[in-house]
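FORM 7B: Structural annotation worksheet

SECTION A. Query
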Amino acid sequence: MYDFESEVISDITLNAVYEEVEKPVISHEPIDWTNDKVMVTVTNDNHPEYSFKYKIGNGEYKEYTGPFEVLENSVVTGISIKENVESKEEIHEIKNIDKIKPTIISLEENSEIKS
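SECTION B. Predicted structure
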């Protein structure tokens, strides 16, 4: 390692290495319509050494420790972290939760449908 406090008496070359921290992969199950919760996972299979943080909507970032529940349609944002360097944000929209019960209208057998 170079001592930047010492006097320079000859030409030196400094090499820097830049490594971009990849964004996480955010997924949820089930992906079909549901009237219940979904389970959200934040991962990056290419980099098991990364840690992750996530937030739901405009909330605060939380440490990711494993799959978590989401009870309503929302946006989950995640970041990967390696040695205190953060990735760009990954945004994942959950829009398959439908908790509105449908109104079912039954037609009598002999009723006519007029158009």
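SECTION C. Observations
The two ends are 84 Å apart (CA to CA). The mean pLDDT is 89.

SECTION D. Sign-off
Analyst initials: ____
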